Amino acid sequence: MKRLTTTGFVVAGIAVALFLALVISPHASSSPDGLNKVAADTGLDIGVEPHATAASPLAGYSVKGVDDSSISTGLAGIIGVGVTFAIGIGLFGLLRLSRRNAAAPPAEAEGEVEPSAPASASAG
Amino acid sequence: MHIPDGFINGGTSLVAGGLAAGGVAISLKQAGKTLDERQIPIAGLAASFVFAVQMLNFPVASGTSGHLLGGVLAAVLVGPWTGALCVTVVLLVQSLLFADGGLSALGLNVINMAFVGAFVGYGIFLAVRRVLPKRPASVSLAAGLAALCAPVLASLLFIVEYAIGGNGAASIGKVATAMIGVHVLIGVGEGVITAMTITAVLASRPDLVHGARGIVRPHVAVPVPQPVGS
To answer: What is the pTM of this model?
Structure first.
């Protein structure tokens, strides 16, 4: 069996995530989840407030203006997959960059110098 | 499991927000130390995969559903620090764009869903993996068992949060009984989905599974010194 490249793996993984979000999620259970069900049954939700972003065009995993509920949910799903991927890549890319910058040898090295580091003028 | 605004009072939510921010800061620092180039798209993928699977509510009892929380899955795939950040990104996007999980409750939700799974759940994963034979199947089994515990632990934590700052009138005993029961069932689903996903990744690219290090052969020799025990 030929091994997937890392890029191939990521593309395949995103394809699976998009498939789940677009095709499967409209068929997911629409019953309240555990917490919401318990909240409704016991009345622990007495103080519940409307969501601060309830006016978002994607509120409730549906796209405002798209009437077909399956399509609306599916579209919201693929938007969410795309946005989380983009934010994830951005965040972890930045983390990696900041680490590389932090790891770059400082101009005035005063600690130990890595053996592989290019030879520099020895500090006095 | 996403707590909306108003379930828990402002003071408790604020303290949770501070704790969550601290945890995220530590995670950023720790993840930054070990993250290599190759893991960036894998971490992005883990976040978007958790987002997608969180949409798949499965029925657990009459009129009740549950969905994956994903903390254990993300931590086993990309390590606990990066995994906690992946789930935090998901929760942030859900709260801001999809109105799922209150903005004021974001800290509570990050603690219950991201940290519990990625830290406590990952600890359970390591403990279970240690007693099992050194085989890839053990990684899937340990991940599944840890994932089974995560929603139950999250529900226990919710009960604590409700006891401290719940706005509702329901008794703690009543809330506890109902919460724990349903989250054991949701845990079964979380365990199955997590074990299946880890098995699928192990079958295609075992070297990409953080939690399988030391068990599967690395794809390329990465000369990064890392403490092994933990």
So the answer is: 0.89
